[in-house]
């Protein structure tokens, strides 16, 4: 099992990763997300042994790396999948996957599993981006690594292909039973694919948790906003309930026990109804999302909340509407920001 403790990484005098702790479970897929420059790729490179670490320890059981005890990449039993595929251009698909393998049956297994049979004898230049990434993944898994690191494997692909390939990659990793750390820019991808999600800000983990908890009970407002559309409304919190201007809901205090709070609202927590009477807000903007519309509504108190409605509900900026809260799951509440 890969364990990382108190890991810090510097570039010169610049500390870019601080005090990282994590345990990667057997066949677990851990998604790492965070804004650009927060240190995601740096962490992967350090785990692979491509850059030195400044403090802490990386331990796989069969090897252990510290600032003084370096372990070269080829001794780490790690597989890496990059966004640029990194295939040998002069070798065929089959040769790329079987490169330096003693047992070609393992290569055949992954060629079949990743649907590459028809491309066996082709060179990478003649393949699509999605096919190249399948080859890269097959080559990685055929070497039976103890863990896999994926650095934005889908970022060079178009949206439709991404959607399919992310599930194929997840299924292949699970079939191989190999744990993985997967860096992505895409919050939806992180939430849907990951067994756990780690949210980074400026080289520090803000939350390392299940996708559900990261989304519904974020450790702080940064995580709340980073993982999806979030609005906050003033409320009073006591006895596991929050009272707000648009409804009372079950609540969970993240950093407080009771008192004046800000309640985290996801668009699906806010119900929007169009009618003549009882309206309490005005639509500020509307974004069409295909199957739904995301609407921002300004309340009398000037707070703006967002609500997701069916695409069948046609709303325009300037419309008067009624918004309310009626959730059965507890909403996260935070001590009131001053
Ligand atoms: N070789 C390097 N030398 C000096 N600083 C570096 C080097 N590589 C990265 N950095 C800096 O370290 C920080 C973390 O970079 P890193 O590439 O890990 O971020 P990231 O989260 O992967 O970003 P992105 O999402 O844009 O890929 C950034 O401030 C970056 O400028």
TrEMBL record:
Name the InterPro entries for this protein: AAA+_ATPase, ABC_transporter-like_ATP-bd, ABC_transporter-like_CS, ABC_transpr_FbpC, ABC_transpr_MalK/UgpC-like, Mo/tungstate-bd_C_term_dom, P-loop_NTPase, Transp-assoc_OB_typ2
**SMART domains given for it?**
AAA
Pfam families in alphabetical order: ABC_tran (PF00005), TOBE_2 (PF08402)
Q: Which UniProt keywords apply?
A: ATP-binding, Cell membrane, Membrane, Nucleotide-binding, Transport
Q: Where is the ABC transporter domain?
A: 2-227
The yes or no answer to whether the keyword Cell membrane is present is yes
Q: Which SUPFAM superfamilies match?
A: MOP-like, P-loop containing nucleoside triphosphate hydrolases
Q: Superkingdom, according to UniProt? A: Bacteria
Give a GO molecular function annotation for the protein: ATP binding
Is Mitochondrion found in the keyword set?
no
- PANTHER family in the cross-refs: MALTODEXTRIN IMPORT ATP-BINDING PROTEIN MSMX, OSMOPROTECTIVE COMPOUNDS UPTAKE ATP-BINDING PROTEIN GGTA
- This protein is called ABC transporter ATP-binding protein
Recorded source organism is Pseudoalteromonas rhizosphaerae
């Amino acid at each position: 099992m890969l364990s990382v403790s108190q890991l810090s990484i510097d570039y010169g005098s610049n500390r870019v990763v601080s005090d990282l702790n994590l345990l990667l479970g057997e066949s677990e897929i851990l998604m790492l997300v965070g804004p650009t420059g927060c240190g995601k790729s740096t962490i992967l490179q350090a785990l692979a042994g491509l850059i030195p670490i400044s403090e802490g320890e990386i331990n796989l059981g069969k090897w252990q790396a510290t600032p003084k005890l370096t372990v070269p990449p080829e001794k780490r039993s790690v597989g890496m999948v990059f966004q640029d595929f990194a295939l040998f251009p002069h070798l065929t698909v089959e040769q790329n996957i079987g490169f330096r393998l003693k047992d070609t049956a393992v290569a055949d297994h992954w060629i079949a599993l990743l649907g590459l049979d028809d491309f066996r004898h082709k060179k990478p230049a003649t393949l699509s981006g999605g096919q190249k990434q399948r080859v890269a993944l097959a080559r990685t898994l055929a070497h039976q690594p103890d863990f896999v690191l994926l650095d934005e494997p889908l970022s060079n692909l178009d949206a439709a292909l991404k959607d399919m390939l992310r599930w194929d990659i997840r299924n292949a990793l699970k079939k191989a039973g190999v744990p993985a750390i997967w860096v992505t820019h895409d919050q939806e991808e992180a939430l849907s694919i990951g067994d756990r999600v780690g949210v980074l800000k400026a080289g520090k983990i803000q939350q390392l948790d299940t996708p559900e908890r990261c989304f519904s009970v974020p450790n702080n407002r940064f995580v709340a906003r980073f993982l999806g559309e979030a609005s906050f409304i003033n409320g009073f919190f006591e006895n596991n309930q929050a009272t707000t201007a648009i409804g009372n809901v079950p609540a969970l205090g993240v950093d407080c026990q009771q008192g004046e709070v800000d309640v985290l609202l996801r668009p699906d927590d806010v119900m929007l109804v169009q009618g003549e009477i009882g309206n309490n807000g005005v639509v500020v903007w509307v974004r069409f999302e295909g199957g739904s519309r995301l609407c921002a509504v300004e309340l009398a108190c000037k707070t703006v909340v967002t609500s997701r409605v069916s695409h069948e509900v046609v709303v325009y900026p300037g419309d008067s509407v009624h918004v309310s809260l009626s959730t059965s799951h507890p909403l996260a509440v935070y001590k009131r920001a001053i």
